[in-house]
Amino acid sequence: MLTVVPMTPTIGAEVIDVDLADDLDDKVVRAIEDALIDWKVLFFRGQEISRQQHVAFAARFGQLEVHPFTGHHEGVPELMVLSHGDEPPVEGAYAENIWHSDVSWREIPSKASVLRAVEVPELGGDTLWADMYAVYEGLSPALRSFVDGLTAVHDFVPAFAPFIAQEKLVEMRAKFPVVHHPVVRVHPVTGRRLLYVNGSFTTRILGMSLNQSDALLRLLYEQTAMPEYHCRFHWQPNSIAMWDNRCTQHYATQNYWPQRRVMERATIIGDRPLGVAAG
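Above: the chain's sequence. Below: its structure in token form.
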């Protein structure tokens, strides 16, 4: 039903025979979701769709979230805008060029995202995705056994607090307290184990001293950054990427200034992460 062309042996595939502007029947939607489970990230090129069509396509896979910290289109709150390049990157400021899993600071993080390229630089601006099953499986057996039962703290504050006024920060902290998620998550569809900590939102591992926690997180982040676990996508206008946020992380390279990169994203609400014992 779908023509799916893999990009690597385990992660990333291009779907070349679907027009997302069409009113897709349920069989096609199920085939896309099955391919997403298999390949973790799907890419669709040449998709001339409106914002309403973008949101409608994403909504075929579940309820959409409205991100509380980022800008969105007036009248289309489910469609967030990611725009960079008007000013030079700021050292230490939150950006997408950190390996991360979207909104892991939520009690119920996202299932998947659908990202469309609106304006892309001539050079640079690629996005990479990491296969977090493979990252976990690449750990030594002893380390896998050690991290299987651990729990980590996830928090929006390190990433977003620098851009929020103090009174607003107090309000948002009340709405979004820190959450605890398993370091090793069990995917609700495949039942496979994967590493579920990330450099943007994971602040520490419970039951350890801060020094011990920092050392272990650095080790796990280094594993995530290994290119053997990645696929890489070069954007063109009207390209779309759809990824399973439960078993991937992504990194948007910011190597294109003074060119601009403008993207729009719809995000599908997921499920509460379950650890090894619960899964």
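The first strand starts at residue 4 and ends at 6.
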